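I'm curious: can you give me some protein's one-letter sequence along with its backbone structure tokens because I've never seen that pairing?
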Amino acid sequence: MKLSLNWLKEYLEITGDPNVLAERIARTSVEVEDVTQPGAGMSGVVVAKVLSVVPHPDSDHMVITQVDAGEDEPIQIVTGAPNVAEGQLVILAKHNSRIANGQKIKKGKLRGVASNGMLCALQELGFDEKVSPKDFEDGIWVFNENDDVKPGDDALVALGMDDFIFEMGITPNRADMLSMNGTAWEVGAMLDQNPTLPTVQLVENGSKATSELISATADKQLAPKYKVRMIENVTVQDSPLWLQRKLWNVGMRPINNIVDVTNYALMTFGQPMHAFDYDKLTTKQLGVRLATAGETLVTLDGEKRDLRADQDIVITDGATPIMLAGVMGGQSTEIDATSTTIVLEAANFNPRNIRSSARRHDLHSEASQRFERGIDWNATEEALDFAAQLIAELGNGQVQPGVVVATDTAKANVEVAVTLSRINHVLGLNLNVADITAIFAKLQFPAQVTDETFTVTIPSRRWDISIPADLIEEVARMYGYDNIPATLPVTTATVGKLTYKQQVIRKSRHFLESLGLNQAISYGLTTDEKAQMFTLDAMANITKLDYPMTQERTATRMSLVTGLLDDVAYNVARKQQDVALYEQGRVFYRFGDAVRPTEVEHIAGAITGKFGRDTWQGKAKEVDFYTAKGLVAAYLNQFDFVASISYQASTDFKEMHPGRTAAVLVGEQVVGFVGQVHPAVAKAFKIKATYVFELDLQLLLDLAKNDRGYQPISKFPGMSRDIAILVDENTAYAQIATVIRENGGQHLVDIDLFDVYQGDNVPTGKKSLAFTLTYQDVNKTLVEEEINAAFTNVVTALKEQLTAEIR
């Protein structure tokens, strides 16, 4: 919010450096992000009267003017302004003057005719396009004859550019400072002054009672307060300069005297209101209700809005919506130059509905900002009367007697009690009753003291205060945070360390990077389709966002693989064919009717192209299933699970290649999968053959593990036996290894597969595998008899359990 210092001075006696005041506001109330003076650096800009206008002899769009700038002789100015005319009071930048951005104006010749300055538009003085009045968008600014300016006056002062503007960062809890009245109360407390607030002297001199001309109804849940006044015989015209000056200095564009008054009341009281053209209302019956299915509304910005049933609050003319309540008015009842009878409404709408409507329609207006954060409950009718009287004065109209009240819900005064000891304990101070009483007096908070307990009645303008902690904060602010003594907290020293989960996550990243993978960080949000791909939990539901940022971020992910495939595609599209990535992060599973999903730690990887680099020792090999499986096996071996790790061919993952995918198990528990992405899915992602894995890291953390302990290295020699067997080609290595391990005896320490063969001399449907079995004892040298007995058990088990043929 922008705060005009000159406007604030109408409430309080303020002297001294504006930057000092800004710094005090920042230390006490809200952040002041910037302090600017619009006219700083400009000079020689005055009010001038156009005495004559003649065409330029060598130009079809420029004219030669003689202007009176309060000097002895007229000044000749050549201009291309399309709206310049004799008798106007305009802005003149004289010879050697400076305008916006330090631009210096010098006399010169335009098409051979001398020009001793420049007639200025507001934009040339640094006005933002958003606040410059539309009537002068394409031409110079022209003062009104009632603006109390004369030739030679300082134009920067007349336009309010000598003012200081504070850019305030209003926090949600201090919405009271979104008004001049609220800000005046706050600054007055700092300066120990009682602000002079604007008063309302309403004169009801219209021809008929308002209730005879219009009716209004409202749902108390949607609009706890809804009141209407009417003003007749109004002339719609430009606002006087004093009003326009106030509006553009706080960042609002002047429109006309009716709309400008509603904005002026908004900035004064923090109370949004809206004006309707009475003659454009067909039924003369205003209503406040929720929109119904299929209803639309063209708002003042010309956009057609599809209203959301049971969410958007609308103001209706009979059954027809004419306004998106609390957000923006409708085009059908807009005030224009022909309007003569004004219907003025002021309300207090349900903040939740207003917030929802503003977000959905992307209409974050000044009104919606205030309704969302809250407004003064008791200021609605005062602001309505203030605006009605001012419209009557500026539009030469009459206020109709009476107010039409649709709803007027009362709210009891809020009383909060806090003790002196509690205040001192929290703030670490030693204040007395008189000190606290003085602070509440500065804030204009009525307080009663009983046995050092303060019972404070909270004014309706400070709806952010409701508990003792709020009052303690008020005391701290007014006492001065800088005056509170600094103390160090008393605590015992603790040794910082990572939890087991944090240790595993950190080690996992280091280990996978040591294997040659690079870390990727993908979005947690994706499309509905991608969110459901590669999921490890088929029973989980997708979690959709009500208000997604884009169509590519509509749901939370249920797998890390899709994000990695997007990353692979990004790299491949940029000629990086060899990609090896991993990601550790959370996926989101939603079960049943739960609103919030369950967050589960996962770890995943994706590799494509070649793994490793070509060196003088050999070429890097193309990635295959065994490359990905080897990475998973190496990673899982770091955990030392009690149960054994195994891999089973699986077709349960529809996004994976049905013949090159395995489920990863620890004991009987499926903890993930590894394999090749289905060619159809790879094609959809525009990538080549890619191998991926994903593991439920949270499940890995929870599974039982062996206690790690020291195992001495045997000083006795080991013994080995080689065995070659012929088995069915569909027999998995894991099956064979399990049989050997279970029957190899206590001294079997290693199983090494050194040959796999299919071809000549091997029957069709069979394969030959050769293993080296290593035996060793840490306590003694093994003898042949022990080894032979153990080896015989292995041979027998292979024959019986796998129907293996020993070669």
User: Anything to note?
Assistant: DSSP finds 21 helices and 42 strands in the chain. The chain has a mean pLDDT of 93. The CA atoms of residues 131 and 252 lie 5 Å apart.
